[in-house]
């Protein structure tokens, strides 16, 4: 069951492994949902599982451009191009609903999860130090008083996706009562509850 992150051997291994694991957890919140359920907002929040999965896909996809090419100045056109390749034509903040059914949204997120391994390979092949400074993107919400590095991007991504996986856990439990342990077991074809808990 992938609920726990596998053992890691280095900081870079940990950063990529935790990011992959948290993306997988977010994706699993959609397991066996109908499109209507995935688009529903059963909590006080305006967030849906569909919206969170597409938002997560865009966030990871966009930041990984900089991880793969840390010294490159990445602009809005770069983000637009890489998102359009995935079939995403607008930016989503998690509360907007994409014009995709949940199967399409999950397929896009699967591509992004595969892209994490591509970024890991790029870092390994180039011998990139996680402390490598990267150009600061222009965003009004970015602080002006810190230095951005590859390390910061990877850990920022892992924590942002973990936060959204938690949002999605609450939404999923509100839809049908399913919890993360159960969804992981189902994804692996294991019984729920585990036989040892009967």
Question: Which oligomeric state applies?
Answer: single chain
Largest sheet: none
| SSE sequence, one letter per element | HHHHHHH
- Secondary-structure content class: mainly alpha
Termini gap: 18 Å
Low-confidence stretches: none
Output the radius of gyration.
17 Å
- Provide the helix percentage: 55-70%
Compute the number of strand runs.
0
Beta fraction: under 5%
Model description:
This is DinB family protein. It holds the Pfam family MST. The protein has 7 helices and no strands. The chain has helices at residues 11-28, 35-39, 49-68, 76-86, 102-126, 150-176, 180-187. It is globular, with a radius of gyration of 17 Å. The protein starts with 10 loop residues before the first helix and ends in an 11-residue tail after the last helix. Helix content is 58%, strand content 0%. With 198 residues, it is mainly α. Helix 1 runs antiparallel to helix 5 (102-126), helix 1 runs parallel beside helix 6 and helix 3 crosses helix 4 (76-86).
Brief characterization of the structure:
With 198 residues, the chain is mostly helical. Helix content is 58%, strand content 0%. The mean pLDDT is 89.
List the helices and strands and how they pair.
Elements: H1 11-28, H2 35-39, H3 49-68, H4 76-86, H5 102-126, H6 150-176, H7 180-187
Helix pairs in contact: 1-5, 1-6, 3-4, 3-5, 3-6
């Amino acid at each position: 069951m992938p609920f726990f992150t596998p053992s890691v051997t280095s900081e870079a291994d940990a950063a990529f492994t935790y990011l992959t694991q948290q993306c997988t957890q977010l994706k699993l919140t959609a397991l066996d949902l109908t499109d209507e359920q995935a688009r529903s907002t059963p909590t006080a929040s305006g967030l849906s599982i569909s919206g969170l999965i597409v938002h997560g896909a865009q966030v990871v996809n966009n930041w990984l451009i900089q991880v793969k090419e840390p010294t490159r100045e990445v602009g809005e056109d770069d983000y637009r191009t890489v998102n359009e390749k995935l079939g995403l034509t607008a930016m989503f903040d998690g509360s907007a609903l994409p014009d995709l059914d949940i199967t399409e949204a999950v397929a896009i997120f699967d591509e992004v999860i595969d892209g994490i391994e591509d970024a890991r390979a790029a870092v390994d092949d180039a011998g990139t130090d996680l402390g490598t400074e990267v150009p600061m993107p222009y965003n009004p919400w970015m602080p002006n008083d810190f230095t951005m590095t590859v390390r910061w991007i990877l850990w920022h991504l892992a924590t942002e996706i973990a936060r959204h996986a938690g949002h999605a856990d609450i939404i999923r439990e509100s839809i049908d009562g399913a919890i993360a342990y159960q969804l992981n077991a189902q994804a692996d074809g294991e019984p729920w509850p585990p036989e040892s808990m009967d």
